[in-house]
Amino acid sequence: MSSPSSFVKIPKSRIGALIGPNASTKELIESKLGLRLDIDSESGDVGITLSPEISDPSVLFRAKEVVLAIGRGFSPEKARRLLDEEEAVLIIVDLREFVGKSESDIKRLSGRIIGREGKTRRLIEELTDTYVTIYGHTIGIIGSMGQAEIARQAVEMFIRGRLHTSVYRFLHAKRREIKKKKMELWKKPYEKL
């Protein structure tokens, strides 16, 4: 019986980041997840094959997310969050779904999300505890499911033309909600005393 396998295609310009210096990134992914990556640097094709000892097929999905994250512009260090945190997810927002293939519209939307000197992107990351990257026609988000979803909503608000101040208010309100929920979780064990 053959081992479960999958396939991902990434831009050729990101192959070096996936392999890493002295193949360190590739080897880390392989050893951490128990699989083999077969990388074709000419085409950008990445084959992922699980080791026979691994019986959990979700490992294949996690490996695809890590490879795709690096392929969509995340540094290997930031993509590693998908390996280290069980609840971390990758969300990809394709700007072409909103504006078609117009390069000028894609650049304009990317600029809105990056902001002056990267301020807007940094603010999204700080208020949602996520990583955000803009690469080509995609916006990538890595974070816990809830936090990544909030970041995605903020990105889509920018895409739909909402003012920066209203998106910032949304992010601050969500941040307060999350802090309040965390405080309630801390209170509950002490209420029984």
List the helices and strands and how they pair.
Elements: E1 5-9, H1 15-19, H2 24-33, E2 35-40, E3 45-50, H3 58-71, H4 76-79, H5 81-84, E4 88-94, H6 96-99, H7 103-114, H8 119-128, E5 131-135, E6 138-144, H9 145-159, H10 164-191
Helix pairs in contact: 8-10, 9-10
Order of adjacent strands in the largest pleated sheet = 1-3-2
CATH class call of the largest domain = Alpha Beta
By CATH, the topology of the largest domain is Ribosomal Protein S8, Chain: A, domain 1
Order of helices and strands: EHHEEHHHEHHHEEHH
The proportion of residues forming helix, as a percent range, comes to: 40-55%
CATH architecture annotation of the largest domain: 2-Layer Sandwich
Calculate the terminal CA-CA distance, rounded to whole Å.
Answer: 56 Å
